[in-house]
Amino acid sequence: MIKDFLNKNSDRYLARWIVLIFDSALVAISYFLAAFLRFNFDFVELRDSWNSTYLVLVVLVYFMGFLSFKSYAGIIRHTGLRDAYNILKSSTFALVVLLALSILGMQNGVFSSGIWNASKSILVIHFLLNLFFLIGSRLGIKVVYQSALNGKTHKKTKVLIYGAGSSGLITKNTLLQENKRDYEVQGFVDDNPYKVGKAIEGVLVFSSKKIFEGNFVEKYKTDQIIISIQNDLSSKRKKEITEAALEKNLEVKIVPPIENWIHGELSTKQIKNVRIEDLLERDPIVLDNVNISREIKEKSILVTGAAGSIGSEISRQLLHYSPAKVILLDQAESDLYDLQNEIKSENPDLFDLVECVMADVADEARMVRVFDAYKPELVFHAAAYKHVPLMEDNPYEAIKTNVLGTKMIADLSVRFGVGKFVMVSTDKAVNPTNVMGATKRTAEIYTQSLQAKEGVSTQFVITRFGNVLGSNGSVIPLFRKQLETGGPITITDKNITRYFMTIPEACNLVLEAGSMGNGGEVFVFDMGESVKIYDLAKKMILLSGLKLGKDIEIVEIGLRPGEKLYEELLAVEENTKKTHHPKILIAEVQAYNYEVISKKVTDLGVCVIQCDNNKMVAELKKMVPEYISNNSVFGSLDMKKIVND
Asked: Whose CA is closest to 448, among 458, 438, 435?
């Protein structure tokens, strides 16, 4: 009943004047006790020396101290160090004033009255007792309130807080003030050996080794660990902590950056589960912003595929380098509209730099008008169809957009004197096993050959990288939806691996590579270590608080048409050269003759007009000899090629 009452009235607080009167009453009581102590509990001697008028003066001076330093303004059930400090300041102020009056009372003159002349020992004893009662009463009320609110009706969530700094302390206090759910903070965990073994506000600090390598979690039945480190936590260390916690079957949560706290205060609702993206992130990339700015500043820039995952992030980043104009071109109406509104609401001061154009990159008449109207000086070509199974079923669309669309934009870049053309490619273009990868490799080959054409001043740069986290249609959003619906999680093969990179990281590198390219380069990004998709699925299950085999299953459904077990960033015959950026390499690729390649692309275009899938894919295989279909209906074309050879 008490708990229900407190829950219903948890947002109501005592009026400040009631706290002020309560504190003043404690001042009077503690003064009487101080005098009683001073006279060794001799009531007769106390009675003979008692001065009621001076008691009024003491209460009045302390009352003034409370008003001056607002020690009564804190919420009692949330009492902390700041409240105790305010009480100390107000009480010290009162003590100094009373001691001064007592000293003056010993002199001749207006202060010679007994009203001002009080025992200094009583004043000091009273000061100490007063601090004890004022702070102790608040802490006592806080403990009683929390005990009554928590009760024993619910199982407490046993929590460890990783980080024994100021953020960890705030997290602990936030948890203990939570009204809707019970928390028991079992301790802090910290990597600083000087903190280990000490206690912070009565809570012990443990080493990570004791928690993750010992039996602490099992012995004390810990439920959850909250990572609460603001500045010094690298992505690598965050991953290590999370994976060690998951091994112990702990639920892992993380405190957001301070700048994201609501009105500068943390609440339990803001403490979120660690996401799988957090485990795949790497430490931030250091960019040569001066070089990028020099490339982009005051230039008209065209971004194709601007509403897609990569194109939209490139567009966002470009706006912060002071371009003259950014033309956002895409055929996806809703996505382009959303991007337009996002820029307008989040960066209204940059919105005048943006021009949104709905168009298909393979539409020649439309593209000519766009180039003629905006005269772009720099092109970021991110428009492409990228879904492997869909493109395997629809080679017409893949070739029309990925090959002929790229040819269209590249040719117009030459025609209208664009300074630099940066193409966003994919690791699936390396030794392709599917239509999508083969079309991207064909697009790469065409732009490379165009660079070698006599009289071409446009610099053609290709950037090649793997999967990006959270992009449309990627595996992580798919797994997340399957988790929300209760599963099962479907994977194609337990041995399948992929490279991952965050969208901002990939786009940072595209801008960097674009700024350093002189034309003809194929830039390859350091993608780190490849990730096993099966392990990724298991971690997502654990991070969601579920148990594999009990709450949800992982089902293997077999490789999809055109899909590889392992992705590659380089073909066998390709080597790399280093650049000034440690995460960007240049692939040494073979040179192509423009006349030969142009004829092959023209032949491919004729097949597209005929709408014959087999003819289109057969022409692709001529264009990209290393293209061998995997688990696809087009595998028969490889057999014919072998027989004919």
From this structure: 458
Dist CA 194 CA 498 (whole Å): 41
DSSP codes, 381-413: E------HHHHHH-HHHHIIIIIIIHHHHHHHH
Is 261:167 a contact under the CB 8 Å cutoff? no
Cβ–Cβ < 8 Å for 399, 361: no
Taking phi first (over 0 means left), then psi (-120 to 50 degrees means alpha), and beta for anything else, what does residue 494 get?
A: alpha
Helices (H), 231-308: 235-247, 276-280, 289-296
Q: pLDDT of 237-284, one tens digit each?
A: 888 888 888 888 888 888 888 776 766 677 777 888 887 777 776 665
What is the CA angle 406-409-411, rounded to 5? 100
Query: Percent helix, strand, coil in the chain (nearest 5)?
Result: 50, 15, 35
Residue range 282-307, pLDDT digits in tens:
665 566 677 788 889 999 999 999 99
Q: Contact, 131 vs 91, CB < 8 A?
A: yes
Residue 76, both tokens: 């009692």
Within 70-215, where are the H helices? 81-105, 120-150, 166-176, 208-213
Cα 308 to chain centroid, rounded: 20
Please answer whether residues 120 and 99 qualify as being in contact, where contact means their C-beta atoms are separated by less than 8 angstroms: yes
Cα–Cα dist 121/95, whole Å: 11
The alpha carbon of 282 is separated from its chain's Cα centroid by a whole number of angstroms, namely: 12
CA dist., res. 103 & res. 112, Å (int): 10
Each residue of 537-591: pLDDT tens digit? 888 888 887 888 888 889 888 877 777 777 766 555 557 777 777 778 888 778 8
Q: Which domains does the chain show, CATH number per domain?
A: 2-150 (no CATH), 157-274 (3.40.50.720), 289-467+501-527+568-623 (3.40.50.720)
* Residue 196 backbone dihedrals phi, psi, to 5 degrees: -60, 135
Predicted TM-score (pTM) of this structure: 0.68
| Tens-place pLDDT, residues 98-131 | 777 777 655 544 444 455 556 777 778 878 888 8
| Distance linking the first and last C-alpha atoms of the chain | 87
